[in-house]
Amino acid sequence: MNLNSLALAYLGDAIYELYIRKYLISKNIVKVKELQKEAVNYVSAKAQAKFLNKMIEAKFLTDDEVDIVKRARNHKSHSSKSTDIITYKHSTGLEALIGELYLKDNKTRIDEIMNYITEG
User: Fold this and answer.
1) Considering 1, 2, 24, 56, which has the largest number of Cβ atoms within 10 A of its Cβ?
2) pTM of the full predicted structure?
């Protein structure tokens, strides 16, 4: 299946959020209000852009993965009301990468990326 970057990001957003929710519950946070408050540290565009840039700087991502991110960042998209366009595009890049890995059934690599994010 060959999806455009925004469709990959749409899928990746759901997968990313599922991983984060599972992670937060594993930390024995059980109150929904606390879960939502803590989730913002991971699922906001600002947080996702920060994690992506950290992975790129650390050379944690492969060249192919960086290419996926760049394609998504460069894809024409609508801006977000909650953040600046650069931050929004970076978060879209991370989501597209997760979406691509999911479609390629590369759960191991998604686990590695999500562990890097949650343990970093």
Assistant:
1) 24
2) 0.91
User: How confident is the model over 31-60, as pLDDT tens digits?
Assistant: 999 999 999 999 999 999 999 999 999 999
For residues 57 and 51, give the distance between their C-alpha atoms in angstroms, rounded to a whole number.
Answer: 10
CB atoms within 10 A of CB 67: 12
Q: Is 63 a catalytic residue?
A: no
Task: List the chain domain ranges.
Answer: 5-119
13, 63, 64, 111: which is the annotated catalytic residue?
Answer: 13
CATH architecture of 5-119: Orthogonal Bundle (1.10)
- Specify the amino acid at residue 111: D
